[in-house]
Specification:
Blueprint: H1 2-10, E1 17-23, E2 32-33, E3 59-63, E4 68-72, E5 104-106, E6 109-118, H2 120-129, E7 133-134, H3 140-149, E8 158-164, E9 172-173, E10 195-199, E11 208-211, E12 218-225, E13 259-264, H4 275-284, E14 288-289, H5 295-309, E15 321-327, E16 338-339, E17 363-367, E18 373-376, E19 383-389, E20 408-410, E21 413-422, H6 424-433, E22 437-438, H7 444-457, E23 464-471, E24 478-480, E25 504-509, E26 515-519, E27 524-531, E28 555-557, E29 560-565, H8 575-584, E30 588-589, H9 595-603, E31 612-618, E32 623-625, E33 655-659, E34 671-675, E35 682-688, E36 707-710, E37 713-718, H10 724-732, E38 736-738, H11 744-757, E39 761-767, E40 774-776, E41 798-801, E42 807-810, E43 819-823, E44 849-851, E45 854-864, H12 866-875, E46 879-880, H13 886-898, E47 905-907, E48 910-913, E49 918-921, E50 946-951, E51 957-961, E52 967-974, H14 990-1023, H15 1039-1056
Parallel strand pairs: 8-12, 15-19, 31-35
Antiparallel strand pairs: 1-2, 1-3, 3-4, 5-6, 6-12, 7-12, 8-9, 8-10, 10-11, 13-19, 14-19, 15-16, 15-17, 17-18, 20-21, 21-27, 22-27, 23-24, 23-25, 25-26, 28-29, 29-35, 30-35, 31-32, 31-33, 33-34, 36-37, 37-43, 38-43, 39-40, 39-41, 41-42, 44-45, 45-52, 46-52, 47-50, 48-49, 50-51
Amino acid sequence: MAELEFITKQIKQEVEELWIGLNDLKLQMNFEWSDGSLVSFTHWHPFEPNNFRDSLEDCVTIWGPEGRWNDSPCNQSLPSICKKAGQLSQGAAEEDHGCRKGWTWHSPSCYWLGEDQVTYSEARRLCTDHGSQLVTITNRFEQAFVSSLIYNWEGEYFWTALQDLNSTGSFRWLSGDEVMYTHWNRDQPGYSRGGCVALATGSAMGLWEVKNCTTFRARYICRQSLGTPVTPELPGPDPTPSLTGSCPQGWASDPKLRYCYKVFSSERLQDKKSWIQAQGACQELGAQLLSLASYEEEHFVANMLNKIFGESEPEIHEQHWFWIGLNRRDPGGGQSWRWSDGLGFSYHNFDRSRHDDDDIRGCAVLDLASLQWVAMQCETQLDWICKIPRGVDVRDPDISPQGRREWLRFQDAEYKFFEHHSTWAQAQRICTWFQAELTSVHSQAELDFLGHTLQKFSRGQEQHWWIGLHTSEGDGRFRWIDGSIINFISWAPGKPRPIGKDKKCVYMTASREDWGDQKCLTALPYICKRSNSTRETQPPDLLPAAQGGCPSGWNQFLNKCFRIQGQDPQDQVKWSEAQFSCEQQEAQLVTIANPLEQAFITASLPEVNFDLWIGLHASQRDFQWVEQEPLLYANWAPGEPSGPSPAPSGNKPTSCAVVLHSPSAHFTGRWDDRSCTEETHGFICQKGTDLSLSPSPAASPPAPGAELSYLNGTFRLLQKPLRWHDALLLCESRNASLARVPDPYTQAFLTQAARGLRTPLWIGLASEEGSRRYSWVSEEPLSFVGWQEGEPQQPGGCAYVDVDGAWRTTNCDTKLQGAVCGVSRGPARPRRINYHGSCPQGLADSAWIPFREHCYSFHMELLLGHKEALQRCQRAGGSVLSILDEMENVFVWEHLQSSEGQSRGAWLGMNFNPKGGMLVWQDNTAVNYSNWGSPGLGPSMLSHNSCYWIQSSSGLWRPGACTNITMGVVCKLPRAEERSFSPSALPENPAALVVVLMAVLLLLALLTAALILYRRRQSVERGSFEGARYSRSSSGPGEATEKNILVSDMEMNEQQD
């Protein structure tokens, strides 16, 4: 470290990066010094070495004020540092540099260890008496020197000049300077406010810890500056950003802040990132993951989040987390928290109630619900927030191999032409080095630009160049690799070839500007394209409320009316005639603007057995809707669009689109381009709603909670944070299972549900024994699939329907915000998870519902005090509700929401134990799981006079008084092999009691009648005994009759004797 400090001090301020002798030229990622000396010390920058994008980064540079190391391509031109053996000077070196006796020199200051154990204020005074101040530590070199001073001390602490003076959670040096470097011990600076900082010794040598300023006693270190240093100063930190600098477009800031901020959020799970991926995404823009130096900065970020996501009750934003730069991933950092951008960790806002010091939680998130920080596993896929200095433009990195030509600009994009030959996948990979993709083509003008440019590059007029259009293996659907819409085609005659299982990739011919398909392993030159605007995935917009209604014969969806026509073959017409027919009805051919409208159309097709014209058509190779609306969403069938691409000729449509009704489920609802003038089909008309009419009940996507029927299935939507197995268990508790998707129509119906809720939904599809082979939990065949391209890619994972309707996979322990159950009709299905025992058969309105190892009885129609609730459950042989984990809380909340009654919630069987000073359940077990609502559980509510309840509307727990409050009742008891319901737990309403009393009176009457009949029969037997040959039981004529005959004979013989 001392050698590194010396080298760093010699580097000129304007020099950013220099070569050192470390390299891995012989063996990848096996670094060695060029002089052959042993590698015993390294000082890598975070996330280095990384051999970025496999670009042969085999040589090492030193850069930054702390002399961090980075692996870089060896062909870069940089200054370098040379080293050779030196000779020791014969003269005595001046070691004290003017320091007083007992003080130790380290440029540019003198240091002294105070050995008395004193409070913080006494340490400050003692240093002042010596004309010095308590020590400040501004970089790791000073930290290393101070650690060497206290190396021989064991079990002691030494005060520094760092403190949280105003108990705000923000630490400052006594000089008032901001903290630019920190060296905290694990779980420091702790989770309470206030305190002063001391250096530890022993195994935690030199690490910083927060101590009580007034009660804790420690030794201390004084520092006295002597002015100009003898050796050069270390390079300073980066200049402080100006307050007057502007922010890039789409970034936000405050006039008092020197940085700009941007939130990256998506409802789609595959767009979220791990901590490392999020950090890389920010760095590619020239930014960093969010760091926070003060309450004021965090307050601005909180306001920014509220503007984007709205200010709501905390439960609305539950488990919406954003990565920030705080982490403890540095293996040499002693598990201490550090900001990824190097900012000193001087301000903290951890949620103390949810802090977890587990080793696997090494990264921090900002919780939208509480606006506090929470430790999280770094691999979790989440949203994130970036931060960039004012006045800095968003960076467009240029990390690439050598290229002959620079980027060529056309309209809003740039293009680079590579003449060396690569396979399609290799070409795409090289394009990504430039933050680009293989080119897409969306207009005749763009095609002409590429064609003219290719003629300058191409050695032959027939040379082929890769572009970004391709199909996926086993899919057959064409897609642009950059995710853009296929709204333009230029196929050569006879192309594309018929679809098959193999992946196909598309090339462009230099001279004719037409396209063909080829095996993707063919090596061709290629074209990369990058856009000046950043393409971002925005969360789905909130759906508009349905306004107005539709005339008879039309189907309403949101604010549009649809009508399918052509059921009679005589009504099937050409495209232009279909458009004319719609116009006669004050409508037009349908425009399908997004996946939600597509899902509605597909869900309307089960009774249709013919293809349907839609309003999409092409007249000059580019597709557009009627009224010249641009194509922003497409749903092409495999191998489409594949129609002829005639030369531009006027505006008359030549190729028009239909929605397919196909025997193959994978084609149903997809689009195909057909001849506008030669084919006849049915068609779909569309018009706006009539505001004078009332909306249809089915005008909006299905809502959570209620049962929904579609075709032969019944479904229930759940909207709450759930793991896959928890969702399965919750469905099974309602005589259902996670839903199966048997056909494209059900797929479309569930797409509407996912889009309406704006959240992915678990379905009943899971991997078999850790493989990529997926099957339904119902064990029915997987006859239809709706996988997103590249899926399933999660071994041992579980599947969900995303907001765009595509099936994707993720870890089964991921918490999604919803699920869809397929409700069973008839006998209960066999369950994936079985528990021993059963629940008692209910009497009257006291039905018992099984869930895991217990049974539950919900009575939200009753309003009882806490004491009466205890008595009622005890009479039933159970206890008032206890909730032991999050899944049980979700189960109870689900049933509270669907229960009828006036109660705000249900009592919890919880009370405060003053001896143990903690909350306990009715069986005296400790409360280890809780779900308190804001503002939490204050000390005043921890008393024997307090009772607690769960809120029906939110599932949150609330404290309150035990008297003058009435709540609903939920009783809970363990499953048992045989259990009878206690009669004392009969319902307490008068009507039920009358029914029971009448039943008892009827039973007494029957018993009286039976007794009278019995006595009459006894008298008959005594009067005519000898002739008796009848049965005295209700048995049949078999063995019992013979037995009675024998008995009668015995009686007769005895009488004769």
